[in-house]
Description:
Strand content: 25-35%
Number of strands: 10
Order of helices and strands: EEEHEHEEEEEHEH
Low-confidence stretches: 1-5
Structural class: alpha+beta
Largest sheet: 4 strands, mixed
Number of helices: 4
CATH class: Alpha Beta
CATH architecture: 2-Layer Sandwich
Mean pLDDT: 89
Strand order of the largest sheet: 1-2-4-3
CATH topology: Ribosomal Protein S5, domain 2
Radius of gyration: 14 Å
Amino acid sequence: MAAIERDGEARTVVRVQVDGSGTAAVGTGLPVLDHLLGLLAVHGSFDLALEVAPGAAVIEAAAAGHALGRAFAEPLRSGRRHGSAVVPADEALAHVSLEASGRPLLVSNVDLSDARVAGLETDIVARFLEGMTEGGELTMHVRLLEGRDTQHVLDSIFKALGVALAQACRSRR
């Protein structure tokens, strides 16, 4: 199943193939976010194409998250609607649980507002996740169980997000 989403101003274009092979062609203008979305695609076995028109980093991240959430909305509605995963990345361990609830909400115990990864202010990742919950009308819980290295924490979150999304998009039996 494929989903294509374009926003009204053509700032963001996303294509998701939920029964894909785990490939990603992502251009958000934020290399760290591109890397994280690649991990999401690999761990969810999605084929993902995402392009965001250049702009302020916070706006790009929120637009990318919103567009990706909207692209997943239909596959989530026709699938199980919920998923949960705990996935490590080195010393980091994150749990992501989500539901296509129709009530956008992000609940997280992760505060990376003071951390920097490759020049990226990581609160931008929170903006991305908030945009995704809004676009997909998801309730999402993100729990960091362990982790010291910021890059590993982010990797763990996006790997778990990919697995949780894959579960939620699976066909009901």
